């Protein structure tokens, strides 16, 4: 197999950037990143290239003072004047708290201070930072594939089975599918000193969840309101999801307070079932938008165009199964003039605690724990014996990770046995081969011994892990829709919102007795009481199954030339049987989505031709090195 490769590191039309240290090699590296006429360049105070790429004019704020330059890429609350004032006081690149204090929005922060370079993403992982070494220097980027193309790095096949897992364990979540490209873990930043040495210091840690709900509510209200205002402050027309659920409805009402004109989007199933439309219309009636679009999801768009969508991503994503209909929605919104679309993603993740918090509360407040436990037993299929065993297990994170079976039956997990571990059980699908199982076990064995949790308590770690997992999906969706022309942002995933929410006690964020009590309290007086009373959520699972049936021929062609099967990672017969079965069981749909996401990504990056001038050897490298990018 051969793939045509561009002479440049990026031939993308969507936004991206690469950050370069202030070194003599910088201009040469910058010249290989893309044709000069297509790039925007921001220089260091020395005049050498600091930031190279493509981005919208309304997403960059720059300030310079002497030997200091600060660039903020993203829609934020700070003005150029205020950033300049703060930059004048900056003396040390390792301390940018004076620059970022109170700054709302989602952004990359790039700073050059007396020859030292800092590149920082977000705590959620919605905005990532990667780095690689080229021409004797370190290059950072917000996309790993830009660096892979710059350095000629191939796909690291050893890591591919990780994306088949139901949940990638935290120590493995920052392994990059490209050889010689490393990821900076969320909550850390890349620091390149004047000698070219790199470090990844921590800039963010989750707060201790000590606040009672009512104590934490004012900070949550302010953080979320400021996050939305950072997107609406420049006016124009923006659009928001309005499913009628608590998260999207909160974003809608907060956005209505700003100067932007609103277009609301509600999507429904083809059978008109579900409650979303009823709740959305109720919310819109209380505060009418400029236009309320109610669009029907075309089930034929589920699981369609997987390879094309995957070609825009720098790693596999199970979200690609939905990107065809999201692209269609985006075009409808753009036709109404929307410059930006806000979604409620992240609301569940930051405003609800996962049941893993029961471990912590059982020690600290046993009465509360038992009360909540009775609620969960009444609402779920958990068995009393299985729950007792799960709560009695007191393993630390490293021990828990080392004991994961990986092949536990997915139809049992999550139905009769509670998910009370540090993370969602990272099981592989039934069609994963022994080779895939051994590959993941080897990686777990290498990293589990030194693995440390994201937070001391199990409930807080589980919440943050979920935030990062779903922040990753939001990043993927944003990448695809940026290609269509409509930026997508999720204010719940902003750093300040996450910090405010995670400061509240886990047993008061999560409870079996009420849906998102923290968000309900934070939105009182902003969202009508009628909308705050919703306790249900529509399911679109049937649409996914219908999409599998309608796209059978496309999926059959993809599996006929399965690269995962060629590499011995999936049992093609078992995968086909599940994919094309007349009856779908249990967790088949998400497992299929993950597997087809990996298959289509691998296919798109190995088979699809790209603009270029010469054929190069197959970029897939089959060697199995020590995972240099691994870190707990």
UniProtKB/TrEMBL annotation:
Gene Ontology MF terms: asparagine synthase (glutamine-hydrolyzing) activity
Pathway: Amino-acid biosynthesis; L-asparagine biosynthesis; L-asparagine from L-aspartate (L-Gln route): step 1/1
SUPFAM superfamilies membership: Adenine nucleotide alpha hydrolases-like (SSF52402)
Keyword Amino-acid biosynthesis assigned: yes
Region Disordered: start-end pairs: 608-632
Annotated Asparagine synthetase domain residues: 220-577
Official protein name in the record: asparagine synthase (glutamine-hydrolyzing)
Organism of provenance: Goodfellowiella coeruleoviolacea
């Amino acid at each position: 197999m051969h793939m045509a490769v561009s002479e440049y590191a990026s031939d993308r039309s969507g936004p991206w950037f690469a950050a370069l240290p202030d070194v003599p090699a910088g201009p040469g590296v910058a010249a290989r990143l893309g044709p000069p006429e297509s790039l925007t360049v921001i220089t260091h105070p020395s005049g050498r290239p600091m930031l190279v790429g493509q981005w919208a004019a309304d997403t960059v704020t720059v300030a310079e003072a002497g030997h200091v330059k600060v660039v903020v890429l993203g829609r934020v609350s700070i003005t150029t004047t205020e950033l300049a004032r703060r930059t004048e006081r900056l003396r040390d690149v390792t301390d940018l708290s004076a620059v970022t204090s109170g700054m709302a929005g989602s952004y990359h922060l790039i700073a050059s201070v007396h020859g030292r370079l800092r590149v920082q993403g977000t705590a959620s992982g919605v905005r990532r930072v990667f780095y690689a070494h080229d021409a004797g220097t370190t290059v950072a980027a917000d996309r790993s594939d830009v660096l892979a193309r710059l350095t000629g790095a191939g796909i690291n096949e050893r890591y591919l089975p990780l994306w088949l897992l139901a949940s990638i364990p935290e120590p493995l979540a920052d392994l990059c599918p490209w050889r010689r490209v490393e990821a900076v873990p969320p909550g850390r930043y890349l620091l390149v000193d004047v000698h070219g040495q790199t470090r990844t210091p921590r800039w963010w840690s989750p707060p201790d969840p000590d606040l009672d709900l009512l104590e934490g509510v004012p900070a949550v209200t302010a953080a979320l309101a400021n996050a939305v205002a950072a997107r609406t402050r420049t006016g124009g027309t923006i659009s928001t999801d309005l499913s009628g659920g608590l998260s999207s409805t909160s974003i809608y009402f907060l956005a209505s307070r700003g100067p932007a004109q609103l277009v609301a989007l509600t999507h429904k199933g083809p059978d008109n079932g579900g409650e979303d439309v009823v709740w959305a219309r109720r919310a819109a009636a209380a505060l009418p938008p400029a236009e309320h679009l109610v669009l029907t999801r075309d089930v034929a768009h589920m699981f369609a165009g997987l390879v094309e969508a995957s070609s825009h991503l720098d790693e596999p994503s199970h979200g690609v199964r939905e990107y065809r209909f999201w692209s269609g929605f985006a075009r409808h919104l753009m036709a109404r003039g929307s410059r930006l679309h806000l979604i409620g993603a992240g609301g569940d993740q930051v405003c609800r605690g996962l049941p893993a918090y029961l471990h912590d509360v059982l020690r600290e407040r046993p009465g509360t724990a038992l009360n909540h436990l009775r609620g969960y037993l009444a609402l779920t299929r958990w068995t009393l014996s299985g729950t007792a065993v799960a709560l009695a297990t007191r393993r630390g994170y490293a021990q828990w990770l080392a004991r994961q079976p990986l092949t536990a039956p997915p139809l049992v997990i999550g139905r009769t046995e509670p998910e009370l571990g540090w993370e969602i059980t990272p099981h592989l699908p039934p069609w994963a081969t022994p080779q895939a199982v051994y590959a993941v076990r080897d990686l777990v064995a290498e990293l589990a011994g030194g693995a440390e949790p994201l937070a001391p308590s199990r409930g807080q770690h589980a919440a943050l892990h979920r935030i990062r997992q779903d922040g990753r999906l939001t990043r993927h969706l944003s990448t695809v829709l940026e290609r269509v022309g409509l930026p997508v942002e999720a204010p719940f995933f902003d750093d300040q919102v996450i910090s405010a929410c995670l400061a509240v006690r886990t047993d008061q964020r999560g409870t079996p007795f009420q849906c998102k009590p923290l968000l309900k309290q934070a939105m009182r007086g902003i969202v009508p009481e009628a909308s705050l009373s919703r306790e249900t959520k529509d399911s679109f699972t049937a649409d996914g199954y219908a999409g599998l049936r309608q796209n059978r021929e496309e999926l059959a062609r993809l599996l006929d030339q399965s690269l995962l099967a060629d590499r011995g990672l999936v049992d093609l017969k078992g995968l086909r049987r599940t994919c094309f079965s007349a009856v779908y069981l249990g967790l088949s749909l998400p497992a299929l989505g993950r597997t087809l996401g990996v298959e289509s990504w691998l296919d798109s990056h190995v088979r699809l031709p790209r603009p270029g001038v010469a054929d190069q050897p197959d970029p897939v490298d089959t060697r199995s090195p020590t995972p240099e990018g691994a870190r707990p």
